[in-house]
Amino acid sequence: MKTAVVTDSTAYIPKELREKMNIHMVPLNVIFGNEAYQEEIDINASEFYQEVKNKDFPKTSQPPVGQFAQLFERLSKDYDAVISIHLSSGISGTYQGAVTAGGMVEGIKVFPFDSEISCMVQGFYALEAADRALKGERPEVIMARLEELKKSARAYFMVDDLSHLQRGGRLSSAQAFIGGLLQVKPLLYFENKAIVPFEKIRTRKKAMRRMVDLLEEDVMSGAHYQAVIIHANREEEAIAWQNELAAIYPNVEFSISYFGAVIGTHLGEGAMGLGWMKK
């Protein structure tokens, strides 16, 4: 059985790697006024952070169901099955769009997978699925492997500017104002598919240290992990952090990714994250 792998743009897998691993991508959209951009196609992360300084606060939207259906229809000509891996259903309807489209298309069996997370940790699932699909594993076996990986998947995010959370309806004006005065850096994580506060931490440095402590709790088992540092237009800081952590944790394979336009809309420039999963 020949299996295709699909994910959405919020996995932020570089185009060259998607092409190498034969991963198909469906973009979410970021909207400035009346102008909609497909992220990772019409607008990249660096362009987004430049645009957001000069325009009104953007909105985001999920891919139309028809876009999924067209892709699945096209894939049905060469594949027997497709595994469609998406950002958490608790923060977007993208996964449900894949489910709906899967029921509309004939000639190919669609296996939707709710990553219950986002960004490059979601990408880890897609890369694992693609590697196994290229080796000819059956989709049911690959899906079981992805479910197994969920047990070790973690991601924590720190926002630098509370106003983005406030605008998104996750923080009241008063909380944002007081938090800003106190330099509170909320540490967020995924729980039951939603982004919720994990801890309130006073400084950026302490928030980043706390994420490392949480990583250490898992990797001290000695198992091999893959971890990713995720940044919102803070590449130099991310590189320095990677160098520091790689020297301390030899059993962890570190990489660097980014918060692109859609997730960056909700977290804001300056956000930093750390995610990991067993290899």
From TrEMBL:
InterPro entries with a match to the protein in the record: DegV, DegV_C, DegV_domain_contain
Keywords: Lipid-binding
Domain of life: Bacteria
Gene3D superfamilies: 3.30.1180.10, 3.40.50.10170
Xref: PROSITE patterns: DEGV (PS51482)
Record Pfam families: DegV
Acetylation listed as a keyword: no
PANTHER family hit by this protein: DEGV DOMAIN-CONTAINING PROTEIN DR_1986-RELATED, FATTY ACID-BINDING PROTEIN TM_1468
Protein name (database record): DegV family protein
